[in-house]
Amino acid sequence: MNASLPDVPEVRVVGLPLLTSGFDLVERLDLAMHLKVHGPLEPIAGESLAGLSEAISLRGRGGAGFPFAKKLRAVADAAIRRGVRPVVVVNGSEDEPACRKDTVLINRAPHLILDGALLAAEALGARTLVVGVTRDSTESSMLAALAERGLTNRRGSSIRARVQRNPVRMVTGESSALVRSADGGPPMPPGRKVRTSDSGVGGAPTLLSNAETFAQLAVAARIGADRYCRTGLREEPGTVLLTVSGAVARPMVVEVPTGVPLRYVLQLAGAPPLPQGVLTGGYHGKWLDAITAHDAVVSRASLEACGGALGAGAILPIGPGTCPLGEALHVANWLASESAGQCGPCYLGLPAAARGLADVLDGGGPTALEALREVTRAVKRRGACKHPDGTAAFIESTITAFTDDLAAHVLGGGCGRPVEGVLPLQQEVSQAEAPSGRRLAVDWTLCQGHGLCADIIPELIQLGPDGFPGVAEASVPRYSEARATRAVRRCPALALRIEEDPSAPSPRTALPLALPPGRGRGRRALGSGRS
């Protein structure tokens, strides 16, 4: 039930490999094998590198799809204007349970990623390279790759390179969270929107993109734009890496040319012949019904035209024997638990949205459905990062794609199908989300309904229709301990207490299916000389 994916699942390729070249020879391409497979790579001047990126229509492969050439030029312009050296950051913080493409690349082809990052650093005149990771396997592989190249973080090095390790949390993969942690702060979004191209690591203009993007740049720099564009669609040339999981016989990462029918990718992984739906783009993505998925092709434009999303490249079909709304509820609960807890739309809105979806499944009727829609509308475009927007989009897509099931739950007694738990989720609770071993209890003989507790710790206590707390006791996660203590101290009637919870699981136990609510040389800047 909702089992997690391994760090390095099976890897397949459709057509000729580009990113996965050499994967049939060794498990990991060290520097010597990398050079045998891909060959040497010469530096490329700044504007030429931007031109190459434009010629192959390279966009970021982390989800947002921002044109790489625009980002490159923006960083170069800011660096020249301010007279400071920029920084290059590789985002390998792939923390969504349904995504493993960047993790596979870092584990098996780390030097291809470093090739692209060092090309960009050479072009920009950057002397600092940071690689963000969140897993033991990716940290070990990237540290070994830096050592194989003789790259260190010592002063006086032509380029200082280091690995930034962060915890496995959905929000740590957000660009501002990675920049903040690289500067020694907590790995969470800072709550204000600042473009990294203007001010990133150490306040310097920062070129930040995900691992696959830099790997694609390295491939294109070796083979040239003409040859690169012979693969895939004219508008979106090249290949993409997809992580296929869900109701499949063989979860895998697959490299495919753009333009390949989505149904072929699903067949390759052993998906049901007629899936009930296909989630595209991951847990901040959108659902496609079976007929639409059958006609879609793998490309950003095609999937968007169909109502889906390429996003971070996750493809997840579900079979006809499971309740799609129940499957989505598991994901919604997990997304709510991944909140950084810094803004109302994320801290309060996402748990409320998850509870709203649960109310719909439990037969709350049209009133519950309208309340759910209102909550998802309220959280959009108001968060400190994109996590609330992505979660709201996922829930809205769920209730739009599965109208028959929605009607059965809203107007009847439910769809009658079990929840199989086919969508992968993390199997360990993060330290912040882990139970503290304590619970917050209400003494009903003293409670007078002042409601201060619900204002202080709304993720645990909500007021009922009568104005009194809706629960008698609630387990306290670690991130809520300080607020729970404050609620006890501020209760005018002294009706709250914190006590030991003997039933609390160990912090490293499996994540429950339904979570409680709330939770160098020749360096030039672009346009500065060589062409």
Your description of this structure?
Residues 325-369 form the NADH-ubiquinone oxidoreductase 51kDa subunit iron-sulphur binding domain. Residues 506-518 have a biased composition (Low complexity). This protein has 531 residues and is of the alpha/beta class. Helix 4 (101-108) runs parallel beside helix 6 (136-149) and helix 15 (365-379) runs antiparallel to helix 16 (387-401). It contains 19 helices and 13 strands. The protein folds into 4 domains: 28-227, NADH-ubiquinone oxidoreductase 51kDa subunit (Rossmann fold); 240-318, Ubiquitin-like (UB roll); 324-411, de novo design (two linked rop proteins) (Up-down Bundle); 435-500, Alpha-Beta Plaits. The strands form 3 sheets. A 6-stranded mixed sheet has the order 1-7-6-10-8-9. Strands 4-3-2-5 form a 4-stranded parallel sheet, sandwiched between helices. A 3-stranded antiparallel sheet has the order 12-11-13, with helices on one face. It has helices at 31-38, 46-55, 68-82, 101-108, 110-124, 136-149, 175-182, 211-223, 225-228, 262-269, 290-295, 300-305, 324-337, 344-361, 365-379, 387-401, 403-411, 452-456, 481-490, and strands spanning 10-13, 87-91, 128-133, 160-165, 206-210, 239-244, 252-257, 277-280, 286-289, 314-318, 435-442, 473-477, 496-500. The longest helix is centred in the middle third of the chain and has 18 residues, at 344-361. Mean pLDDT is 88; it is low at 429-433 and 505-531. Helix content is 38%, strand content 13%.
